[in-house]
Amino acid sequence: MVINKSLDEVNLIAALLHDVQTSHGVVFNNKACRLTINKVKQRVSSEGLSFLTKTLPRLGKAFDKALLENTKFDCIAIGFKPYRNTKLPRFLGELFSLVFSPDGAVLPEPCVQCIKQIRLILYLFYKYELPYSHEQEQQVLSSFKKTEEDLSVVNKNLEKIRDSIDVRNRRCAAAYTSRSTSNIAREAKILLSSLFARFDPTDIVPRHGPGAVATKQQLWNKFRWTNISSTITNKYPRDAYFYASLGHVCDSLDSFQTIQEDILPARVILVPKDSRGPRLISCEPVDFQWIQQGLSRAITELVETHPITKWNVRFTDQRPNGFGALEGSKDGRYSTLDLKEASDRVSVDLVRLLFPEHIFEYLMACRSSCTQLPDGSIIVLKKFAPMGSALCFPIMALTIWSILSAGVEDADTRESIYVYGDDVIVPTALAANAIERLESFGLLINRDKSCTSGFFRESCGVDAYKGTNVTPVRLRTVWSESPRPDVYTSWIAYANQLFDRQCFNAYDYIVEKILHVYGDVPDDAMSHKRYPSLREVPLDRRPKRRRNNKNLQRLEYYVYDVKSPSIVKDIDGWSMLLRFFTEGAQSASSCPDGTEGFDSDFSESIPFSVRLYTRRRTSMLVRRWR
After folding, report:
1. Is the dihedral of CA 53, 59, 61, 67 positive or negative?
2. CA distances (Å), origin 26, targets 29, 31, 122, 135
3. Burial class (CB in 10 A: 0-12, 13-18, 19+), 330
4. Closest C-alpha among 401, 347, 384, 371 to residue 269
5. How far is CA 78 from CA 50, 54, 81, 87, 446, in A?
6. Which pLDDT score, from 0 to 100, does residue 588 have?
7. Would you give the DSSP letter of residue 580?
8. Which of 93, 150, 431, 515 gives 452 a disulfide partner, CB atoms 3.0 to 4.6 angstroms apart?
């Protein structure tokens, strides 16, 4: 069966609407379903996919805002036609009527399943990775520059706070009340000083990151040093941190003496995100990245094991924040806060204000002070580290946690503050004060995504209402009629998510498309999670070829799997030894975003190899026994 590609998105929405009709047939009957599908076809025909990627999500945001703020919903304000004498939209109005009264107020007992279905339809294509325009690129760059300008004003305020808590000016410091910003800063600094009391910033194992660097070396060339900044070597000497041993230094004496000590700028690049625009990433110089990775890993290990922070600040597991969102939605006891441009608004002066001096010195030693924009211009950075620096995430999280925890004497309240990057959970009684605190230090709260009232909460990918998970399926990867590894794995995942939500018409539609392009596909009854598989597949469409692997004592099928192409590169012996010392002790795994790393299959089957690499952002769809 050949499927018309131009109608893929509309047909998927139609299948999803039929699922809604199946589960809510009393109010959303066959006639309502047919009229709604016709309306979608009409709007997409006249507006294009922007109806699905922009217009419907705009309705969804207004819907969420009414739920979390208990404000009256008004579809007219966002350009949707209402039912007569109501503020509810005609589009999906039958479902909206089970959530809101005619005047737009939230019902005392709204239908949670309707909320789940409405959000599923409105947000399905919100993050669809369609091409973005040049104007959107310029908006991202303009926002980056404007944040730098805003930090100039913020830094003046931080300077006043720093002066007020200076121990040499006790009279000035004593004049502030216990709730003053200066006292919060002082107590936050005490918390971070306690955290780092026994931390040695020189006890690190540096290593290279998986991504691109400002100096554009491939991974196998990163171990040949041509430039090491003097700001780094003041704290991390070359012979101790950039060479495998003193023998390496002696054998590389000629190159050792010719290494430049110039401070090279970082480099800003724009990477695809979704139809709303690109994401801005700062590529660090290779010498800065080398030390940043080691220091970041040491700080992460400290924070996740130290009694002060191990239950409240996390970097590797976001499930506690998701659970907190579910719990907070039950009775409103917990609120979720989302920070806007959080990584770009943690300024150098804020880090200097809060972190102990002996830690700040080492953080600054491996921090890029300037970055080069795509047009070639160079700007001096007032932020501590943009996204792309290995230290951006841990320093941002610790900054937020210390400000919120400062001065909180009640143990239960302090233990109820959870931070994962810029996703924050606090007791609702503390929410208003938390917002005021964070913004007094130059951080900016995204009020549209922060949930401090009502029963709607969202944090770390979990959306919840009254204890029910109402997280929608959000499609990202654009469907292609040609076999592609990213499309294969992504759309199998989308189909499984829809199956789990009992959207069987939409599931069947996607499965039909997958089987048409890729042939027989395994299902969960055959798989032990060794390869991508669907929840259910007709018996005649499962892979036929199978064998019994006597060595592993398991039944294997000849199926599609995703594999990163391997590259074998020989570098000089000392560089290979340096790589072994810094990476060999840790398990090698491929990065989820396709950046440079190791093939997961190789890491499972053969020992660590200093010659083996994988090509960045590439993968292959191959058939093999699994």
Report:
1. negative
2. 6, 11, 21, 46
3. middle
4. 371
5. 15, 12, 9, 11, 20
6. 42
7. I
8. 431
Is 70 exceeded by the pLDDT of residue 521? yes
Q: Whole-angstrom Cα distance, residue 401 to residue 412?
A: 15
Three-class SS state of 461: coil
Residue with tokens 């590439």: 618
How far apart CA 111 and CA 433 sit, in angstroms, is: 32
Whole-angstrom Cα distance, residue 186 to residue 198? 20
CA distance 333 to 426: 9
Helix (H, G, I), strand (E, B) or coil at 322: helix
- What does DSSP assign to residue 565? P
Cβ neighbours, 10 Å, residue 360: 20
Label residue 76 exposed, middle or buried (CB < 10 Å: 0-12, 13-18, 19+).
exposed
Contact 89, 75 (CB under 8 A): yes
Residue 205's nearest CA partner among 277, 117, 292, 331 is 292
Are 248 and 211 a contacting pair, CB within 8 Å?
no
Percent of the chain past pLDDT 90, that is, above it, reads 61
Cβ atoms within 10 A of the Cβ of 540, count? 7
Q: Contact, 74 vs 104, CB < 8 A?
A: yes
CA torsion 248-249-255-258 (nearest 10°) is 160
Give the torsion sign (CA, 386, 387, 391, 395).
positive
**C-alpha–C-alpha distance, residues 147 and 550, integer Å:** 61
Strand partners, 445: 339
CA distance 508 to 455: 33
Residue range 574-601: average pLDDT?
A: 60
Residue 166: predicted pLDDT: 66
Q: How confident is the model at residue 357 (pLDDT cuts 50, 70, 90)?
A: very high
Does the pLDDT of residue 408 top 70, yes or no? yes
What is the structure's pLDDT at 585?
Answer: 63
Q: What is the mean pLDDT of residues 107-130?
A: 94
Return the closest-CA partner of residue 276 out of 121, 132, 141: 132
* Residue that the structure tokens 């409405």 belong to: 118
Query: Rounded to the nearest 5°, which phi and psi values hold at 410?
Result: -75, 120
Closest C-alpha among 224, 171, 385 to residue 299: 385
Strands (E), 410-461: 418-420, 423-427, 456-459
Helices vs strands, H then E, count in the chain:
25, 15
What pLDDT, on a 0 to 100 scale, did the predictor assign at position 100? 94
Largest CA distance in the chain: 85
pLDDT for the residue 597? 38
Only one residue has tokens 């199946």, namely 22
- Please tell me the predicted confidence (pLDDT) of residue 550: 87
**346 Cα distance to chain centroid:** 17
Nearest to 408, CA basis, from 312, 318, 336, 321: 312
Residue 601 CA to residue 609 CA, distance in Å, equals 13
CA dist., res. 476 & res. 621, Å (int):
19
Name which of 42-46, 52-56, 254-258, 328-332 the model is least confident about: 254-258
pLDDT confidence band for 456 (50 / 70 / 90):
very high
Cα–Cα distance between 548 and 556 in angstroms, integer?
6
Tell me which residue has tokens 């058939």: 623
Q: What are the residues whose beta carbons fall under 8 Å from the beta carbon of 172, sequence distance 6 or more?
A: 163, 164, 166
> What span, in angstroms and rounded, lies between the C-alpha atoms of 80 and 89?
6
Query: Which amino acid, 42?
Result: Q
List the structure tokens of 472.
């929608």
